[in-house]
Structure formats: structure tokens, C-alpha cells
Design brief:
Order of helices and strands: HHHHEEHHHHHH
Number of strands: 2
Largest sheet: 2 strands, antiparallel
Number of helices: 10
CATH topology of the largest domain: Four Helix Bundle (Hemerythrin (Met), subunit A)
Radius of gyration: 21 Å
Strand order of the largest sheet: 1-2
Structural class: mainly alpha
CATH superfamily of the largest domain: GntR ligand-binding domain-like
Shape: globular
Helix content: over 70%
Length: 248
């Protein structure tokens, strides 16, 4: 349909979209419901594999069943929720292969980002510094969810140093799984502070113009133990689920 110019343009646009205000409002409510569920998942309140029955969520969140379904679809696109034809929705479970794949991608992208960051100006490093400082503040306050949020923001800011809108979108698509990875690890206050300090150190290395190879090695030193820890957790969760599914 070719659009005409002039006063009739608004009427033509309305006829094309046939705007449904109710659907828009429901979508907005679904975003809010998704946000509430996302916080429960990323804080560890809902562990991987936890069922998410529509009826219970409808009552708990005080929204319609259609809104809950849309919220679950949003979280499924983010990788936080998985659907099973017979069992319904549940918090996504990452297995050992998922962890290996996620960290293989992270090493490729983030290592290149660190090398790009060495040659950039301090102004472009400011989002990295802000995320690191938020992480320190959250660790000091014992805010586990705040630590996870700042951690994800830090690595997103790191990837943005590559200056690629496509890579930014790709990495944003992984953020749900990154949230899930970080939420799987229950860290003590001292461990959270040590993790925050690692991010501050990496930021300072980039700000000080440390050699690219050294900064890259520091990033890999940071990612390695994290992957090992998550792999162990994923293995334990898999074994636990297997025992529950097939008790002997």
C-alpha cells in the first residue's frame, strides 16, 4: 500500500496498524510483570528448573493470565525461561555444554574488546568505571542482585568499546543467560568484594594504557575461574535433577 502525502496520511497509518490500545497497555503491564519475575530469577529466589505455573503467577502478580503468558514469552526470549510442552514454563537450566559455549563466545568478544579498550580515550571508558564503582558499592552493601546487575553492565560496556552496534545487540541477546550464570553462584560478602575489585583492576589497566596482551590475560584470568565454578554448579544441578527424575 503506497502512502499518500497530506492530511490523509494519519488516517492511512491508522488503517494500516489498526491500533489496539488495550494490547499496548497489556504489553506495558507484561513488561512490568517480566521485570518482577526477572528480579526473582536473577536474585536466586527462583532457582534453575523452578516451575512457573501461570495460575500461581497470575494470583501473585495480580495480573491477567494473558499478561503472565506475555511476560513469560519476554523472559524466554532473554534465555531466562524455558517452555516444555507438557510441564509448562520453568526457570531455564544451563548445562555444562551451555556454560562452555557461553564462555567461548565471551572470550572471543571480550578479549577483542579489551584490546580495543587499551587504545581508546578515557571518556569512552567512563561507563566501565561507573559499572565497576556500582559493583563495589553493591558488594559493600551486601546487595547480591546489585552486584550481578553491575557485573552484567560492566561487561556490556566492555563490549561496546568495539564500536559495533551488531555486536552490542548480539551481546545484549546473551544478557539473560549472563544474568542466569551469575545468579547461579551464591557469593559471600568477601567473595563479592573480591570480584568487584577484579573489575576495578581491569578498568584501571585500560585507563592506564597497560599493554593489550597484559590486559587480555587479566580478563582471561577473571573468566577462567568463573567458568569452572559455573561448570561445577551446572553438573551438580544436572545430577540432582536426574536423581529426582529417576530415583533409584
Amino acid at each position: 500500500m503506497a502512502m499518500t502525502k497530506g492530511p490523509s496520511l494519519h488516517a492511512e497509518i491508522e488503517s494500516v496498524f489498526d491500533t489496539d490500545v488495550t494490547a499496548i497497555r497489556r504489553s506495558s503491564t507484561a513488561d512490568q510483570a517480566a521485570h518482577a519475575l526477572r528480579e526473582k530469577i536473577t536474585s536466586g529466589a527462583f532457582e534453575p528448573g523452578t516451575p512457573l505455573p501461570e495460575a500461581a503467577l497470575t494470583e501473585s502478580l495480580g495480573v491477567s493470565r494473558n499478561t503472565v503468558r506475555e511476560a513469560l514469552r519476554i523472559l524466554a526470549r532473554e534465555g531466562l525461561v524455558e517452555h516444555n510442552m507438557h510441564r509448562g514454563a520453568a526457570v531455564a537450566v544451563l548445562d555444562e555444554e551451555d556454560i562452555a559455549d557461553i564462555f567461548r563466545v565471551r572470550r572471543m568478544i571480550e578479549a577483542a574488546a579489551v584490546e580495543a579498550g587499551v587504545e581508546t580515550d578515557r571518556e569512552r571508558l567512563e561507563p566501565l568505571r561507573q559499572a565497576a564503582e556500582r559493583m563495589v558499592a553493591a558488594a559493600d552493601a551486601g546487595d547480591a542482585n546489585g552486584v550481578v546487575s553491575a557485573d552484567v553492565a560492566f561487561h556490556g560496556a566492555l563490549v561496546s568499546l568495539l564500536g559495533s552496534s551488531r555486536l552490542n545487540r548480539f551481546f545484549e541477546g546473551m544478557q539473560g543467560e549472563l544474568w542466569l550464570c551469575l545468579a547461579m553462584v551464591a557469593r559471600s560478602e568477601s567473595e563479592s568484594k573480591a570480584l568487584a575489585a577484579e573489575h576495578v583492576q581491569l578498568c584501571e589497566m585500560l585507563e592506564n594504557g597497560e599493554p593489550a596482551q597484559r590486559s587480555r590475560e587479566r580478563l582471561l584470568e577473571h573468566l577462567g575461574p568463573c567458568q569452572s565454578e559455573l561448570t561445577d554448579i551446572a553438573r551438580e544441578l544436572g545430577e540432582r535433577r536426574a536423581r529426582l527424575t529417576n530415583p533409584s
